[in-house]
Design a protein that fits this description.
This protein has a single domain (21-118), classed as Alpha-Beta Plaits, CATH 3.30.70.120. 27% of the residues lie in helices and 39% in strands. It has three helices and six strands. It has helices at 29-41, 81-91, 109-118, and strands at residues 11-13, 19-26, 47-60, 63-77, 99-104, 106-108. The strands form two sheets. The chain has a four-stranded antiparallel sheet. Strands 1-6 form a two-stranded antiparallel ribbon. A hairpin with a 2-residue loop joins strand 3 (47-60) and strand 4 (63-77).
């Protein structure tokens, strides 16, 4: 009835949200799970989605390469990004892992509230 602009759904846009989505690629499903576990156990992420395998094409050490990888899409706070990078590097096998953050500028208010409350950076709580 309302479509994409349902007035019953509260939305937040450009409200200074401290949220971001971080993309991390991993060389195996097991490594992607290790990344996920490290981030969730430390409460550095509210949610991590693992997808794959995907085929990545890239330049590495002067040569064009192709590899099967798994993609972790991490929902977290921008203020936790340094800790997220450190945690990923601790469990990751790559010399230069892909760890790229994209700001979340808006979304469903209830989801963003949950994300902010859950990604506390206080492991075990």
């Amino acid at each position: 009835m309302y479509g994409a602009f349902d007035p019953r759904v509260e939305r937040v846009q450009n409200q200074g949200v401290d949220a971001c989505a971080v993309t991390v690629t991993a060389g195996s499903e097991e490594e992607a799970q290790a990344v996920t576990d490290a981030l969730l156990d430390a409460r550095l992420a509210a949610c991590v989605q693992i997808g794959g395998p995907v085929t990545s094409h890239y330049w590495w050490q002067g040569r064009r390469e192709t590899a099967s990888e798994w993609v972790c899409l991490v929902k977290t706070r921008q203020s936790l990004l340094d800790e997220v990078v450190a945690a990923v590097r601790t469990v990751h096998s790559y010399d230069v892992p892909e760890i790229v953050a994209t700001p979340i500028t808006g979304g469903d208010a209830a989801y963003l509230d949950w994300l902010m409350a859950t990604a506390s950076g206080r492991g075990g709580l």
